[in-house]
Amino acid sequence: AADKIRLIPQDFFAELCEQIIQHLNHKIPGINTAELCQRIQTSGVDINIGDLAKVANTLSFLFSTAARNNLSTEELITSLGSGVSTLPKHAVQVIRHVWNEQGKAIAVSEDATTTATVGQFVDMKWKLGVAMSSDTCRSLKYPYVTVTLTVADPSGQITDKSFEMTIPQFKNFSRQFKEMASVLETV
């Protein structure tokens, strides 16, 4: 991950660290690495989303471990210097600054973070479509619903999951959501 961190400009690295801290503090559901990667690539840096996700996971592990061990800023920087001597100077400076400013807030809420082992629902979009024809069938006129769920996995990576349903499947799906809503109203 240290080689990939060298590629990331300081301002983008700082933004990534801030998002990770906010995620660990439960202020945002996750880190949108796809959007951040696109912006980094637009700035002229050759990095792919997989590498950026590895960097984000590494930083998330670093910050959550430091919070779990209640490390001070100097203890964190010292441990970084002894364990990962290949980190670029700008990265160490950003980590120092972010941890100094916001590290204590994580230490308070870290016990809640460790219990969350499933992803978090962020958004849902759906659209109705009709398949008119295909190369094997001239007249389908088959309606379907495409659903896209946006979820943040436990490490904070935001991803979209899409699937299609027939109209009867969608009606069942909708009925189940209505049942959940009515149960939640009684709580």
TrEMBL record:
COMM domain span: 120-187
Pfam families registered for this protein in UniProt: COMM_domain
An example molecular function term from Gene Ontology annotations: NF-kappaB binding
Stretches that traverse the bilayer: none
Recorded coiled-coil stretches: none
Domain of life: Eukaryota
Function as written in the Swiss-Prot or TrEMBL entry: Scaffold protein in the commander complex that is essential for endosomal recycling of transmembrane cargos; the commander complex is composed of the CCC subcomplex and the retriever subcomplex. May modulate activity of cullin-RING E3 ubiquitin ligase (CRL) complexes. Down-regulates activation of NF-kappa-B. Inhibits TNF-induced NFKB1 activation.
Entry similarity comment: Belongs to the COMM domain-containing protein 6 family.
Protein name: COMM domain-containing protein 6
Gene: Commd6
